[in-house]
Amino acid sequence: MQRAGLPVATKGMVIGLLGGSFDPAHAGHAHLTREALKRFGLDRVWWLVSPGNPLKARQPAPMADRLAQARVVMQDHPRVVVTDIEARLGTRYTAATLEALTALYPGVRFVWLMGADNLLQFDRWDRWRDIMAMVPIGVLARPGSRIGARLSKTAEIFWGARLPGSASQRLGQGPAPRWCFVNMPMRDDSSTAIRARGGWRQAR
Question: pLDDT for 23-52, tens place per residue?
Fold first, then answer.
């Protein structure tokens, strides 16, 4: 049974999942989300604002602040839901979150979304091979990461599961492992750079 406070989705929908600390959310996140909706044939995108990133020593700003900022940046897009799913489920790692979501939403097709910079170090993620086996993955170009992402360990091992960019609209319609890299107009927004410049007021 679906838990109270979680987004609504019906059988057959294709939902993109964009995870991260969003510390702070910025226009680059919004741009990537809009491109993912167009290029991967998604019905919705859920932002999974995480309690914290296990790969980072520095922990993010309070969850309530990050959720509020994310909603401002996304400007109530009708097909995007900003959520605290991982906090509600008590999960911290992506593999565990995906297991919980697929159990809670039978018949919903999930697609994990990431920038190409994340694909570069995806093999460091907890149970990364399990993630590849659970859901299709949509990879979107990021400044300085396009070539490296295609040469990454994950890309090399799962090259046979790669869907060409010309077929990106079908990504969520087939079984995992299945991934697709797409080029797109890029922005160089960075949460790290925004914090270094003095905080969240420059995030929009």
Answer: 889 888 999 999 999 999 999 999 999 987
Give me the sign of the Cα torsion angle 180, 15, 130, 149: positive
Domains and CATH numbers, the chain: 14-202 (3.40.50.620)
pLDDT tens digits, 149-189: 778 999 999 999 999 999 999 999 999 999 999 987 655 65
**Backbone torsion region of residue 80, taken as left when φ is above 0, otherwise alpha when ψ lies between -120 and 50, otherwise beta:** beta
Please state, in angstroms and rounded to a whole number, the distance separating the CA atoms of residues 65 and 108: 30
Closest CA to 18 of 134, 167, 118: 118
**pTM, two decimal places:** 0.86
Distances (CA, A) of 24 to 47, 158, 183, 191, 203: 13, 32, 24, 6, 7
